Amino acid sequence: MTAMQWRIWWLAAFGKFFEGLVVFMTGVALPLISAEFDMDATQHGFVGAASLAGILVGALALGGLSDTFGRKFMFVVEMIIFMVFLVLLSVSPSYFWLVVFLFGVGVALGCDYPTAHLIISESIPSASRGRLVLGAFGFQALGALVGSAVGYVVLVNLPDVSAWRWMYATAIIPAALVTLGRFYVTESAPWLFAHGRIDEAEREAARLLKRDPTYPRTVMLVRQSARHHQHPSQMGWSALFNRQNRRATILASVPWFLQDLGTYGIGLFTPTILAAALGHSAVQVHNVTDIIGNQILAAQGVALVDVLLIVGVVGAVMLADRVGRIPLQVLGFIGCAAGLLIASFSTQYTGVAQTVLIFAGFMLFNFMTNLGPNAQTYLLAGEVFPTEVRGKGAGFAAAFAKIGAVSTAFLCPILLADIGTTNLLYGLAGTSLLGALITWLFRIETAGVNLDRAHERELDAGYDAAAGEGREAA
């Protein structure tokens, strides 16, 4: 790993950090926002879903642009958009503009889903790709933990209904530094090469690999195989659903959608669920002091639960290249279902037993989701598509996943009120088991495989199977 490779990695990692920080900090800030703008349950849902809806749009509309304008260009643009809307969010004058600005922040974070993954994975050795991509992705969990901690510190030092503004404002200066740093990275050589810009690709590869002493002394790029190279006419959005890419699209999109139902349903509303399950329900709140007191307690509980997100992603980093993406994703989905079921049992008990069950269930869920589907779906989405449509494929997968995130964020407050915590957890456990099944049925293993060959190897298997069927028919 050269200095440039590490620079790219760190700057991409902080993009995931900001996502965890902003999205999960909203869970702590939401009751204060509700108090300031006098929101009802439906408006709660819109605030919770706004940034996730933005991520959906950003991943689909902007993430795919990295295939057209380049990985670096969008890597910079997304952070500029994030900075602008983050500043506006911290000074939101009304409920309407709050939702608009949260949506804008989400658009920037959505673009980062495919772009950050691709700029890392196309710049580092295949043997360590899983560890490094997931290591960067793990900063989302770190951001979630820091978001809870920031919420707690701000509330303790500024016990006021406007404290949520300072929570978001704490990210402005760090985001500005990351934005500046992204101007000084290399463009993806594989992207340049796929667009026929061979000389530029070689120059950027030489910059990427610059070290002292110099090695390699010269860089010359050659296409290893033209068998599966996609013609420019096959590089549009429709290419994701053709015979070559359909299996990859299903594997990258559907399990991620099912995983986001649970991760954002639990992650965004953990403070609310903990409060409801442990008896600190909204009906006991009579004034702003009560709200702040409850949120301080909830922030402490969320921080404890979120520690397991970090432990889980550390496990994913250590095992992804050894065990493989598919086994970890299947195991993780099953573990998530088990954690949600354990948490659901808490409603049948009181006192210490109730507290132990709900914390044990949520902590198991957080550990297993980051060991498995939350990490592996992100990793697979940037690996199973060919270079020509990798940005579109990863962007579509992230956008499709965020349909699940938006749905659960919007419906969670309503469902908690209508069907209760237990039934909601039962439903999310069922979607986790379905995610395990679909992962296994459409599996494509990419651990340790060159990005170009990961896609080609799956196609080769398909061609060989077709040839075998032809010989049998003959």
TrEMBL record:
The chain crosses the membrane at residues 9-33, 45-66, 73-91, 132-154, 166-185, 296-320, 326-345, 352-373, 393-417, 424-442. It is found in: Membrane. It comes from the Bacteria. The keyword Transmembrane helix applies. One of its GO terms (cellular component) is membrane. GO terms for molecular function: transmembrane transporter activity. Residues 8-447 form the Major facilitator superfamily (MFS) profile domain. InterPro entries: MFS_dom (IPR020846), MFS_sugar_transport-like (IPR005828), MFS_trans_sf (IPR036259). Keywords: Membrane, Transmembrane, Transmembrane helix, Transport. It is a multi-pass membrane protein. PANTHER family: SYNAPTIC VESICLE GLYCOPROTEIN 2. Belongs to the major facilitator superfamily. Sugar transporter (TC 2.A.1.1) family. This is MFS transporter. It comes from Ancylobacter pratisalsi.
